[in-house]
Each structure stands twice: as C-alpha cells, then as structure tokens.
Amino acid sequence: MIADTFISYLRSRPELWQRLRKALPAVGFETADWQRVVMYRRCFEFIRQLNPGTLDAMEISAGPQWVREFNFRSFTDMKYPEYDICAQTLDRQFDLIIADQIFEHLKWPYRAGRNVFSMLKPGGHFIVATPFLIRVHRVPIDCSRWTEEGMSYLLQECGFPAGEIKTGSWGNRACVKGNFHYWPRGGYRSLINEPDFPVVVWAFARKPIETP
Are strands 185-187 and 30-33 parallel, antiparallel or unpaired? Predict the structure, then answer.
C-alpha cells in the first residue's frame, strides 16, 4: 500500500513523475501495475528485436506504455469501443498490431483476430496480452479469459500458423491476492513466477509472408 500511495503522489505531479518514471525501475522500483511488469519486459524485448523505428504500428485502444518506450515509424491509435475491431478494419496494413488488455472485453474475439490478421502485412506481427486470474472488470463489458494454450488455439483459428505463435504468462499467488481489492503497482514486489497462478497471458504471432 505504501508503494501505491507513493506512485499516486507522483502521478499527481506530472513534471516530477516524468523525471522519475525511468529512474525508479533502475533502482528496482517498478511503476507499472504489478501484474504487467514482466509482461511489458517480455513484450518490449520482443519489439526491440524487430527494429521498431522501421515499423508501422497500430494499437487497439492505446495506452501510454508503447509509444513512450518506442519511436515507431508510424503509430496509429484506434480507440475501443468507438473503433470496433470485431467489425471494422482499416484500409491499410501494418507491420505490428498491439492489443494490450483489450481482447477480454470483446464480444467476438475470433472476429477481431481475423480482422487483425487481415490488417497485418505479410510477415507482420501481432502482440496480444490479456488477464487470467484477475477479477472481473467491465470496461464496458468483460467476456473472456485464456490460458497460454487457449490463446494459441484462438490465434491459430484466426489464421496464424502454430509454428509462428509464441506464448508466455506470469503470475504468483501473492499477486492474485493483491488484486482482490485494488490494482497494485509493481514497487518492490516479488516477480517470482508460479506457472499455475498466471495473472496475465501474452502471445506473439506472425503472419506468414505467403498466405494460402
């Protein structure tokens, strides 16, 4: 609770928060939500390997994390639910599409995945991250949860080959309990992974260069 109070104090002072945002993780104090710390680390590592400055990226309901971390060649932010990924596509394609904590809110995730697939350039990548052992949060609705295996099967059904999908997850019992009443920040909390208690699941999927 002390860590979260400290972060709330900093966030109320934007100039101070911006100065300290990068310094705090360097001394072991994570400012991201506890359940997302490891997920962001793994996702950012993956994007760095793609040479982000060369990528045309799109995020479905973008948060500040991705554009704060990377200078993409271009970045398109489509706000959910005004932009309905289940029913709409854009008339262009992207090297990278990001869906961070959004697919759990979709009525029709298979339709959304097919639309993502169609908007990727050949060889383009899709990053999707969703909660698992997290309480229901209706923004405006809350519909689905996936394990790593379930996420892989969903992406395969959407057109991504099994060999082009890599999944990951993180969580532990303490983080599950911490989410009972509020969204705890990372702070100095344990990042030990207990595979049977995942709080977040993510996947990296690549569209084949040649599609059937």
Answer: antiparallel
